[in-house]
Design goal:
Blueprint (H helix, E strand, L loop, with lengths): L16 H13 L18 E10 L5 E12 L5 E8 L4 H17 L6 E7 L7 H15 L8 E5 L5 H15 L20 H19 L8 E5 L3 H12 L3 E6 L4 E3 L6 H11 L10 E3 L11 E4 L18 E3 L8 H9 L3 E3 L1 H4 L2 H15 L5 H26 L3 H20 L4
Parallel strand pairs: 3-4, 3-5, 6-7, 6-10, 10-11, 11-12
Antiparallel strand pairs: 1-2, 2-4, 7-8, 8-9
Bound molecules: nicotinamide-adenine-dinucleotide (NAD).
């Protein structure tokens, strides 16, 4: 699959990880790119990779060093944009893949950003609040040389939230000597955040899921939903599907899997997670399932909303869903994509399904620049319209070219990026 010149020398073949999935996805779209395929190597090389050392003083006086990353995959269409992840398994390969998926996503939904992503290899649950703040600030300062409202705009991802963004905004502003709200999105409302941003990714997942269901004649009221990941994305999508009358029959997070044949009470589950840190042990469940049995749950829509490479060649044949709705980035490997396709299961790809977050991040960035803030209704209406249009235009391309929704979304995304690349020309 990957010839040696396509793998940056700083990744050894055993570390290809999610970046390998992304390269395979690019290879699948290349035959459809026409004359733009001359530029396709651009998509296989991140523009800029920054690895930083993040030392902090612990509460007990010792020093700990963490490894941090910020990757700007492509900036042909605008500044870099993408989240920051704090997780013990963060690797360069993962951050590179996540940054590249942001390039495709931002182009596919046509927001004027390139793609970027950041992360720190850390389990934030092992840090005190003070340690977490010091780590976030030192990381922000280290990547401060390449981020900025016109350069690269971070946002929340796994294990980061509005508070993380407030610290990042403050640190960047202190170093600049003036308050710069537009350097990050997903901020608290009182610091220039946007109404509706916290729910935006989950809301987009719901809107696109409802459109996709419509195309296969599946009604949302009564539909059975299984969700992996019950954080910002999975939690909000589950709530919106439940409010629309669907039955959320299974929810899995990092510590447990809960099931109820008649649908879990999503609000009660949310309250339980706030109090206990996980769905594990939720008393309103009919069954506490083993992790692996999640993949056998009979459902209509399965929403992977945790991490990448969850649906693979080893479990794709077991899945009993009509639609896979990708809330997470990169949850389905290319081999699993093929198996699901052969089994007639519709995969709604991440770069469309979870683009609601970056769409409202774009609205937030515009609001910060103009210092004029919109109502929540206006934001949700614009978000809904944009997500529906993006899904339907990708669906028409998929039907027209007889390709998967993923390849169609990559076709739209790569075309926009490479057209910009060609028009700008190579410098010097
Ligand atoms: P989060 O930190 O709010 O929640 C993550 C959830 O995943 C938690 O419930 C956690 O327990 C669960 N989880 C972690 N490891 C797991 C495992 N091994 N098995 C099962 N569950 C596990 O993160 P989030 O912001 O909801 O992000 C989830 C996914 O959505 C990621 O792939 C992220 O890149 C993607 N995403 C997030 C946004 C956003 O705006 N936050 C936007 C687009 C895509």
């Amino acid at each position: 699959m990957n010839t040696h010149h396509e793998i940056p020398s700083y990744l050894t073949p055993t570390e290809i990880g999610p970046w390998g999935d992304y390269i395979e996805q690019i290879e699948r779209v290349t035959p459809y790119l026409g004359s733009l395929s001359r530029w396709v190597e651009t998509m296989k090389r991140p523009k800029r990779v920054l690895i930083v050392d993040v030392p902090i003083e612990r509460d007990n006086g010792t020093i700990t060093h963490f490894e941090g990353y910020r990757v700007q995959h492509n900036t042909s269409r605008g500044p870099g944009k993408g989240g920051v992840r704090f997780h013990q398994n963060v690797t360069l390969s993962e951050v590179m893949a996540l940054s590249a998926w942001m390039t495709i996503k931002n182009a596919a939904v046509n927001v004027p950003f390139g793609g970027a992503k950041g992360g720190i290899r850390v389990d934030p649950k092992t840090l005190s609040l003070g340690e977490l703040q010091r780590m976030t600030r030192r990381y922000t300062s280290e990547i401060g040389i390449i981020i900025g409202p016109n350069k690269d705009i971070p946002a929340p991802d796994v294990n980061t939230n509005e508070q993380t963004m407030a610290w990042m905004m403050d640190t960047y502003s202190m170093n600049e000597g003036s308050t710069s709200t537009g350097v990050v999105t997903g901020k608290p409302i009182s610091l220039g955040g946007s109404l509706g941003r916290r729910e935006a990714t989950g809301r987009g997942v719901f809107v696109v899921g409802a459109e996709a269901a419509n195309t296969i004649g599946l009604a949302i009221p009564g539909a059975r939903i299984a969700v992996q990941g019950f954080g910002n994305v999975g939690g909000v999508s589950a709530k919106l599907f439940a409010e629309a009358g669907a039955k959320v029959v299974a929810v899995q997070d990092h510590a447990g899997t809960v099931f109820h044949e008649n649908g879990l009470d999503v609000s009660a589950l949310q309250a339980y997670v706030t109090a206990h840190g996980s769905v594990a042990g939720f008393p309103g469940a009919e069954e506490q399932m083993s992790r692996d049995n999640f993949w056998d749950v009979q459902c209509d829509i399965m929403i992977p909303a945790a991490l990448e490479q969850q649906i693979t060649e080893s479990n794709a044949h077991r899945i009993r869903a009509k639609i896979i709705l990708e809330g997470a980035n990169g949850p389905t490997t290319p081999k699993a994509d093929d198996i699901l396709h052969d089994r007639g299961i519709l995969v709604v790809p991440d770069v469309i399904a979870n683009a609601g977050g970056v769409t409202v991040s774009y609205f937030e960035w515009v609001q910060d620049f103009s210092s004029y803030f919109w109502s929540e209704d206006e934001i949700n209406q614009r978000l809904t319209r944009l997500m529906r249009d993006a899904f339907n235009s990708v669906r028409h391309i998929a039907e027209d070219k007889k390709v998967s929704l993923r390849t169609a979304a990559f076709l739209v995304g790569c075309t926009r990026v490479l057209q910009a690349r060609e028009l700008r020309g190579l410098y010097p």
